[in-house]
Amino acid sequence: MSASAVILGLGTFGGGLGAARHLVRQGYDVLVTDLRAANELEAPLRRLQPEIDAGSVTLRLGEHNVSDVTTCDLLVVNPAIKKPWENRFVRAARAAGARVTTEIALALDALPARCTRIGITGSAGKSTTAAMIHAGLAAADLTAHLGGNIGGSLLDRLDSIADTGDLVVELSSAQLWWLDQPGALETDRWFDAGVVTNLAENHLDWHGDMPHYAASKHVLTRRLASDAAAVLGEGVRDFPTDARLVELPSDAELPSLTVPGEHNRTNARLALAACAAAGADPSRAAAGIAAFQGLPHRLQLVREHRGVRYINDSKSTTPDATCLAADALGSTPVHLIVGGSDKGADLSPIAELRARVRSLLCIGATGDVIARHAGIEPLGTLDAALAYASKHAAPGDAVLLSPGCASFDQFTSFEHRGDRFAELVHSLP
Predict the structure, then answer these.
(1) Residue 330 has pLDDT above 90, yes or no
(2) CATH of domain 4-101
(3) What CATH topology corresponds to 300-426?
(4) pLDDT digits (tens, 9 = 90+) for 193-210
(5) CA distances from 316 to 17, 124, 221, 298 (A)
(6) Against a cut of 0.90, is the pTM above it?
(7) How many Cβ atoms sit within 10 Å of the Cβ of residue 332?
């Protein structure tokens, strides 16, 4: 009789899909269960259809069932599930003796042991820093693979990842918390280098409080061995670690960057230090980082229309990220679109931007709160905010979507939100 596995939360970012297909290849009978209905999971289900048709994967959608998780050998939990230590399905699986883990742990177990592993975390800038490291390593002719929280699943690329090379893995606080849980990892292999960009209040809806969030971020550096490298941003130099601390290069060692903003120069310094720690030639890595074009939904220029720049920074899901995005535009008059779903963070820093921007346009579930703090009226929807901004922006202005909040009130993801913004911008007359 083959072993059985349950994917608790398929999700839409690729991790659940990658885990399901990987476990099928490992010989498991896989049940995918998700609270969402099939029409909300159309894209991942379409890609999973061959395994469903073959009978290797079965579905339970629109609900979870305790009996599923108490009769399986392995439970793979979507890290988006909040406060998993309180989740009755997770607790029931553990009580029944199942191994409980996550997709990122399965990937670290399965990835070649000889690869150099670089883990990146932080409250803001971790995706960009991870992508910059990948660009720097590639420019130095080092084989590198980028994955983790940035999207997709490394489990879908195991065949293309050789025994040598560099793995650049972005890690969320939730993923790190899970990696620290007993039984989540089977391998003793940890990261050879850990990069932490910064630490600010974030994801309190998941963690419950700031100390729990910070402790989860500490997992990356706390578990580094003494021969590993720790690349720490200026505000997180006190993170606990036995690893050797890597000095950051001076700003003068970086050429001009393609991506704007002083915060991106900080990200680039962290990336260059990580590349050097991985053995890359610093000058070649610096050239690759300088040429980096940026990631979608992160200060991405969508269009210049009638002298107004429309910029998509939908990946901004913290107040700090919104403040950094506003800073990146310097003296440009900005019409700033903010708000979304509530993660429990203090939103007053976003409201205080009212004094610095041409207009502050508040949308979503948190829009009322931000607007009240700023003494203005909320606009409610992205469509309404973009219509207002396009009407009032003058040549030389910028319309910036940098919400500072998660997207799950009105959108399925930050990508969905950013794509809708781009669609609206391209439809302007």
Answers:
(1) no
(2) 3.40.50.720
(3) Protein-Tyrosine Phosphatase; Chain A (3.90.190)
(4) 999 999 998 899 999 999
(5) 25, 8, 25, 7
(6) no
(7) 16
